[in-house]
Amino acid sequence: MAKFNENFLNLKESYLFSEVAKRVSVFQQKYPERSVIRLGIGDVTLPLGSTVIKSLHSAVDEMGSADTFRGYGPEQGYDFLRNAIKEYYKSFGVELDADEIFVSDGAKSDTGNITDLFSKDNIVMIPDPVYPVYVDTNTMNGRKIVYINGTAENDFLPMPDRSVHADIIYICSPNNPTGACYSKAQLEEWVAYALENDAVILFDSAYESFVSDDDLPHTIYSVKGAEKCAVEFCSLSKTAGFTGTRCGYTIVPKGIKSVSYDGKEMSLNKMWNRRQTTKFNGVPYIVQRAAAAVFSEEGRLETKRMTAHYMENARIISETMEQLGVWFCGGINSPYIWFECPFGMNSWDFFDFMLEKTGVVGTPGAGFGKNGDNYFRLTAFNNKENTEEAMRRFRTLFE
Length: 399
Ligand code: MLT
Fold this sequence. Notes:
Layout (H helix, E strand, L loop, with lengths): L15 H15 L6 E2 L11 H14 L15 H12 L10 E4 L2 H7 L9 E6 L3 H9 L3 E6 L18 E5 L11 H13 L3 E5 L25 E6 L1 H4 L7 E4 L5 E3 L5 E3 H12 L5 H10 L2 H28 L3 E3 L5 E5 L6 H12 L1 E2 L1 E2 L10 E5 L4 H13 L3
Parallel strand pairs: 1-13, 3-4, 3-5, 5-6, 6-7
Antiparallel strand pairs: 2-8, 7-8, 9-10, 11-12, 12-15, 14-15
The chain binds D-malate.
D-malate (MLT) binds next to loops.
């Protein structure tokens, strides 16, 4: 009989958002007449922008004509999209080569898939709380994880501890779930730590388009030296409403080297290319055409409008927390609001309590790590009407 990967025994029974969906479904079966407002998983509600739709339509037409039909595309992404992303990075003062950019179906897959490149014996440093994919995928591989604590005292922005060694470091900024965002000086410290330890930083910038403060970095490559130690993952899911359309990109600079136990050097860029050409057949042509439209002048304006819409919801949620005297962070350079559970409850108890009393769904902080036990996350991705109604119901908990 085939033996299973025993590391799966070390995972929680279900993935965080599957557990949330399961509890909501039980609630809906129990109370079919009650309205549910979802501020749980960060799924967008605005439709794709008109520039994106136009590009998608014309790509669909191309697929219907023999002269413009496309079959297999390059696994790494079409040049038109890689070049558009390259130009986008120039707007942050960052110069990349197009062959350092790999188009993918999103940051979730790539932050998990990248683990293929590293030995099982590496020590992985992961902030707690954080997006659960980093922990789950490394647990599946049986790697040793050391956690760094994000707490209210450090504004949920843990900094490197020089007495601890790590080979692989995950950073998510603006952070999911806390909405906290590292400054350039803080990222400089992380890059210095990575270089001292010959470590690789896996930097998830999926929420960079929500950064509104001019002083905060959108990319880790704003820091000198990051091109020698950092891989960056980004996604159009939240930026341009691609959660269902699926497109993201991963930047693997050619300057990052990794070594084997007997000292053989490999380029991470070449290894990722080898991995992708073996296991991935690329993102559909029509989706890449839609993605390229996101980086056009008009597409970028559409993105700005979408972001402003969601950030108005973030303002409504933050204002409610302020008025109720609930401690929170995020909601400024991020679509997530992270708050302390009221009434001394733990986060799963508060999840059930709030759902039962108000029909509002959020995400329990415990799903992002032990430091999230007494915290809770709400997203700004619903529409304004629902967000206002959710906050009206939320206030009733305090009456
Ligand atoms: C979240 O709610 O944390 C995200 O939507 C999950 C994801 O991007 O996979």
